[in-house]
Write a structure and sequence with these properties.
CATH class of chain C: Mainly Beta
Radius of gyration of chain C: 19 Å
CATH class of the largest domain in chain A: Alpha Beta
Oligomer: heterotrimer
Shape of chain A: globular
Number of domains of chain A: 3
Strand content of chain C: 25-35%
Largest interface: A-C, 60 and 46 residues
Largest sheet of chain C: 5 strands, antiparallel
Radius of gyration of chain A: 20 Å
CATH topology of chain C: SH3 type barrels
Strand order of the largest sheet of chain C: 3-2-1-4-5
CATH architecture of the largest domain in chain A: 3-Layer(aba) Sandwich
Order of helices and strands of chain C: EEEEEH
Chains: A alpha/beta (362), B alpha+beta (350), C alpha+beta (98)
CATH superfamily of the largest domain in chain A: HypD, alpha/beta domain 2
Number of strands of chain A: 11
Structural class of chain A: alpha/beta
Shape of chain C: elongated
CATH architecture of chain C: Roll
CATH topology of the largest domain in chain A: Rossmann fold
Helix content of chain C: 10-25%
Distance between the termini of chain A: 31 Å
Order of helices and strands of chain A: HEHEHHEHEHEHEHEHHEHEHEEHHH
């Protein structure tokens, strides 16, 4: 596959790893923000190619993992309603709510459908006028434009049986919150390349200036990740803290302007609670007033849900890089992908899932 | 579950479930749990403990292989075949995996009310064509019709009997340390072909299912004097699940080279887009072949000459005794262990 | 989910209305439809990065090629440096596919 295979080239990976080893003269701790990057690192063993002086810690870049428990429970409660066709992305299937998960709801007769794109849910609404179609809109700014497009289409079609349970989250406020915590260890950040493809990287300028921490826009293939690490190490070695774009083939400073305009039309920033980070002001997206009629949380009564979480689950600490999944006492015992205590063990971007899948038994 | 005479209290949930979920049919961990915790204990006998694709039975000095499979593939017609072709090939292959020469098949049909007879005709023609090409007849069967809405078109169960007329014992317990692991071609085609035919996913590809009867290829390998230790067809759960099960059942560790596992570009791209790992995608015309190192080149040469062996490759070897782990050496020189996926990746794939 | 893939635009539908502008995109051996609503500058033959059925940006081929040239230079440099180095560690060869 063009523009994919070249960025998985083993010889280039080797060369970059060697160059990183030569460049790092001191210990440095870096965080990769996005769960997709975490999975690539763990799967390909990229962390093992780095010199011992470099530590990579995993960030909160898993949108479903950072979604508060009561929102998950809200989603599951909607999925159980007989009139609802509940649509979500594939890896939501086994995310544990307080009492159940989508897989069980489906097994017991709930109409749960995995979709590839939010626009597919609009199509389902058109095809099923007698049913209520709800799409669980989870994701960073990478995914929010697709949801916004679906909302726009629903409005243009004047659909009255389509709604969105919105749980989109924004990265820059979370980075600010992470860097502000007193026990923060990160000296450099690898920013999520596809979030930046949409939003650009101009939002990171004030962050590097306030915290004097380099932020490198990084892609997802093995070569891209090591390139991001190298750029970050070089900045740190020089004592510099700027925003570096190491994913220039996909990202520009201003980002995708039409996508940003679409987001501004459909959404507005709202305060949101993040698992592991508490409430972060203006860190989430909610539907703008002109789209509020598509808000599933307003359309359906879901008050009275009592949420509870496993006392053993420590995904909040995993998400903020304070706990390596393998150090969690429940890892691989009470908590496995088949019996997950938290979303980090089942989401395609969860750090616990990455370690279980690729490092279990090692 | 209510406790009464008909349904004694359910002893344990399987994992966290007290009821079946789609993943229990997926060929991954959930299915393994269902087999190990409920089905095997309920049926418990030494032949099931052979843990191979077909059961090898002693009948008055003759060894027979016996197997059965149910086919619930959706859609019924897909690029490269249909449920009829699949039902015949799948069962012939299960017999071949014990090194048996197929003799007879049976076919039980569960037909949904409203299912068109011309479609049924096409399916049976496909099934019979495969059987005839293998020199085998469908000698018995059954036909049932269920109400509309209760059957999804057509389900087929086929059983097969084969004869083991050589001295080899082709089974997981015959795998030895040092054995070479081969595959007869590139992996992942069937799963991708099925998915491409599911309209809701909306992608186009020219990939066809690799659905094929491997029994004659196996026969040729045996006739050529290849000391085959084990064969396993790579259906649900793909190459990854098959090797993990064999490693566990043989009590040996295995190692694979990622760069040596043949995957076509089209399958790779489809898997990337759908978020699948080709290692765990179903095949219906591919097998893993375990031979002593000394026989590996002979086997590969024969495979290269055979239409169903194109793209065959050596993908790894069996290590010494271990915990039944399968290690994959990636292109970056790092080794990681394989693990069974949970199971609901690709429902109704075969 | 953040994973997105680059693909080449084969054909474009509904070019007049930005909201419904979509295209058939080729990824290796597979073709899938994606929304082009937010990449108005992308045309047939261009590469776009697609996430959840939605093109999030146009891939800058010149930048990609420049990056690859940079890597090739780096590889040569590292090869020269390690020419006399310990040959103990086996060097992995080739790509993912056999």
């Amino acid at each position: 596959m063009k523009y994919v295979d070249e960025f998985r080239d083993a010889a280039t990976v080797q060369a970059l790893a060697e160059r990183i080893a030569q460049s790092a003269t001191r210990n440095w701790t870096l965080m990769e923000v996005c769960g997709g990057q975490t999975h690539a690192i763990v799967k390909h063993g990229l962390d093992r190619l780095l010199p011992p002086s470099l530590t990579l810690i995993h960030g909160p870049g898993c949108p479903v993992c950072v979604t508060p428990q009561h929102v998950i429970d809200q989603a599951l409660s909607l999925a159980q309603r007989p009139e609802v066709i509940f649509c979500s992305f594939g890896d939501m299937l086994r995310v544990p709510g307080s009492h159940t998960d989508l897989q069980s709801i489906k097994a017991q007769g709930g109409d749960v459908r995995m979709v590839y794109s939010p626009v597919d849910a609009v199509t389902l609404a058109r095809q099923n006028p007698g049913r209520e179609v709800v799409f669980f809109a989870v994701g960073f700014e990478t995914t929010a434009p697709a949801t916004a497009l679906a909302a726009r289409q629903a409005r243009a079609l004047n659909l009255d049986n389509f709604s969105l349970l919105v749980a989109h989250v924004c990265v820059p406020p979370a980075l600010q919150a992470l860097l502000s915590t007193p026990d923060n260890r990160m000296q450099g950040l690898l920013a999520a390349g596809h979030v930046c493809a949409v939003m650009g990287y101009w939002e990171y300028q004030p962050i590097v200036e306030s915290f004097h921490v380099p932020i490198v826009v990084t892609g997802f293939e093995p070569v891209d990740i090591l390139r991001g690490v190298l750029a970050c190490v070089e900045e740190l070695e020089r004592g510099e803290a700027t925003v570096v774009n190491a994913y220039a083939r996909a990202v520009t400073r201003e980002g995708n302007v039409p996508a940003q305009q679409l987001l501004k039309e459909v959404f507005e920033p709202v305060d949101l609670a993040w698992r592991g980070l508490g409430t972060i002001p203006l860190s989430g997206l909610g539907l703008a007033p002109s789209y509020r009629r598509f808000d599933a949380a307003e359309r359906f009564e879901t008050a009275g849900l009592v949420s509870s979480e496993s006392a053993l689950c420590r995904s909040g600490e995993v998400l903020t890089g304070r706990l390596d999944p393998r150090q969690c006492p429940a890892f691989g015992k009470e908590c496995t992908p088949d019996t997950p205590l938290g979303a980090t063990m089942v989401s395609s971007e969860g750090a616990c899932a990455a370690y279980y899948r690729y490092r279990h038994g090692q | 579950m209510a406790n009464n005479e008909l349904f004694p209290a359910c002893p344990l949930p399987i994992g966290q479930y007290a009821h079946a979920v789609l993943g229990h049919g997926g060929g991954g961990r959930l299915m393994q749990q269902l087999l190990e915790k409920l089905i095997r204990p309920a049926l418990d006998n030494p032949w099931l403990e052979q843990r191979h694709d077909s059961a090898v039975l002693e009948c008055g000095g003759t060894r027979l292989a016996f197997t059965t499979d149910a086919y619930v593939v959706k859609p019924l017609f897909f690029p490269g075949g249909d449920i009829g072709k699949l039902a015949a090939c799948g069962t012939l292959n299960d017999l071949a995996m014990s090194g048996a020469r197929p003799l007879y098949l049976s076919a039980a049909l569960i037909i949904e009310e409203g299912f068109p007879f011309d479609a049924l005709q096409t399916v049976l023609t496909s099934l019979n064509a495969v059987a005839q090409a293998a020199g085998v007849a469908v000698v018995t069967g059954d036909t049932k019709v269920v109400e509309r809405g209760k059957g999804d078109g057509l389900y087929i169960t086929t059983s097969g009997i084969g004869l083991i007329d050589h001295a080899l014992s082709i089974a997981p317990r015959s795998i030895r340390p040092g054995d070479a692991i081969l595959v007869n071609g590139d992996i992942g085609r069937h799963g991708v072909a099925i998915l491409s035919a599911r309209e809701s996913l909306g992608f186009e590809t020219s990939i066809q299912s690799d659905c094929a009867d491997l029994s004659s290829l196996v026969g040729e390998l045996i006739a050529a004097g290849c000391e085959i230790h084990c064969l396993r067809d790579l259906t649900r759960g793909g190459l990854g699940a098959a090797l993990l099960e064999l490693a566990r059942d043989a009590g040996l560790d295995m190692e694979l080279g990622e760069a040596a596992i043949p995957v076509s570009e089209a399958v790779r791209s489809a898997c990337e887009i759908l978020g699948l790992d080709p290692l765990y995608v179903a095949n219906e015309g591919r097998m893993a072949i375990f031979v002593p190192e000394a026989h590996a080149e002979t086997a590969l040469a024969l495979l290269d000459r055979h239409p169903l062996g194109q793209g065959a490759n050596r993908i790894g070897r069996v290590r010494d005794a271990g915990r039944g782990q399968v290690g994959l050496r990636t292109s970056f020189g790092v080794e990681r262990l394989l693990d069974l996926p949970s199971g609901e990746q690709l429902p109704r794939i075969c | 989910m953040c994973l997105a893939l680059p693909g080449q635009i084969l054909s474009i539908d509904h070019d007049d209305d930005p909201l419904t502008r979509k295209g058939r995109i080729q990824f290796g051996g597979v073709v899938k439809e994606a929304s082009l609503a937010c990449v108005p500058e992308a045309g047939i033959g261009d590469y776009v990065i697609v996430h959840a059925g939605f093109a999030i940006s146009r891939l800058d081929e010149e930048e990609a090629e420049a990056t690859l040239r940079e890597f090739a230079a780096l590889s040569r440099l590292q090869d020269d440096k390690s020419a006399g180095a310990d040959l103990h560690a086996p060097r992995p060869k080739g790509g993912v596919h056999g």
